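We were asked to recover a plausible sequence for a given structure. The inputs and outputs are reproduced exactly as logged, with field labels preserved.

PROBLEM: sequence recovery
POSITIONS: 357
GIVEN STRUCTURE:
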């Protein structure tokens, strides 16, 4: 398939710049796969689409404050650093902006979000073909343990914060059930849930299960190749524990639905199924699975997700899920997106939600 087939027009004002006042106050577009019908609801109505015995699987990865404010001590030039992946303690691959100023051998010092000097420095040790830099940090025992003091929430670049990222951003760009630190972008489909809503679902007989996939920027990187077959997705670390594996496996045996919260959860479940011949089993490792039409899903029966960027791998996954094993899912999803634009839904990470059943 062609990458250009997944493009669509979006008025810039529909890119959500702030979350809904309440987590569960967002809107919910419901797409029915069999007939292509669309319903316009509120997220608080989600329980009416779930039933007792359903298994709701969520990604419990925690977003780290991965954005750092750096400067070059020799020139004072400001540099923004976004942590991407840790090789070992104090050794990270990062994205640097503006990259042209930061060559191998450069020294960087850092400030807190409030602008105060922090006892943290780094040396640029290497660069790769993607333009990323490898930094060796000094002055602290473990950078991960310092991020709450020196880092900021890694909001996507399409979310504008002229005055800087706020404490409210750090809270709302994090799911209420986040547990294991490691993501540099939020698994955004889960941002709509409150603790009260999750407890309500449990009381209605919905089983909650958790996987972990630490979200990296590769998931959100634009597809630059002309065709999907040429694109390679960056690998991300995941874990699926025994309790979740057993819960999902039992649901599949008994004909109950498995509902994935977010594309990252889909990628974990379908990766594990591919590893074990369609079965669920405890697993941990890295996955670079790239899901696009006409992918055949083995595990996931319904998907809760957000509205995704044009020509993104996330939009391609959603299109595959709208018509498993077929190519027509792209038309179904883009038609639903067209309705969402007309109805003035809010798009991308801090925007509204979509349920595909």
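RECOVERED SEQUENCE:
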């Amino acid at each position: 398939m062609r990458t250009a087939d997944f493009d669509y027009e979006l008025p810039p004002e529909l890119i959500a710049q702030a979350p809904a006042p309440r987590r569960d106050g967002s809107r919910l577009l419901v797409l029915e796969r069999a007939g292509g019908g669309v319903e316009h609801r509120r997220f608080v109505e989600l329980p009416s689409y779930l039933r007792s015995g359903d298994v709701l699987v969520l990604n419990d990865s925690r977003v780290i404050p991965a954005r750092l404010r750096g400067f070059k001590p020799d020139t004072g030039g400001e540099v923004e650093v976004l942590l991407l992946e840790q090789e070992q303690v104090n050794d990270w691959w990062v994205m640097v902006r503006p990259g042209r100023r930061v060559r191998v051998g450069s020294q960087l010092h850092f400030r807190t979000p409030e602008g105060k000097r922090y006892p943290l420095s780094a040396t640029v040790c290497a660069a790769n073909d993607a333009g990323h830099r490898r930094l060796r940090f000094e002055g602290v025992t473990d950078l991960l343990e310092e991020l709450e003091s020196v880092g900021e929430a890694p909001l996507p670049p399409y979310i504008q914060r002229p005055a800087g990222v706020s404490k409210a951003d750090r809270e709302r760009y994090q799911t209420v059930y986040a547990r294991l630190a490691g993501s540099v972008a939020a698994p955004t489909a889960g941002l709509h849930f409150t603790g009260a809503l999750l407890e309500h679902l449990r009381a209605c007989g919905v089983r909650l299960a958790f996987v972990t996939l630490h979200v990296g920027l590769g998931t959100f990187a634009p597809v630059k190749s002309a065709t999907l077959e040429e694109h390679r997705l960056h690998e991300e670390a995941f874990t699926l524990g025994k309790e979740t594996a057993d819960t999902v496996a039992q649901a599949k045996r008994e004909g109950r639905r498995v509902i994935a919260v977010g594309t990252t959860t889909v990628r974990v479940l379908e990766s594990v199924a591919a590893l074990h011949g369609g079965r669920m089993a405890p697993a941990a490792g890295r996955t670079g699975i790239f899901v696009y039409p006409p992918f055949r899903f083995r595990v996931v029966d319904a998907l809760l997700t957000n509205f995704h960027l044009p020509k993104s791998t996330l939009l391609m996954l959603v299109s595959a899920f709208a018509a498993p094993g077929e190519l027509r899912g792209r038309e179904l999803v883009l038609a639903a997106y067209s309705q969402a634009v007309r109805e003035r839904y809010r798009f991308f990470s801090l925007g509204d939600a979509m349920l595909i059943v």
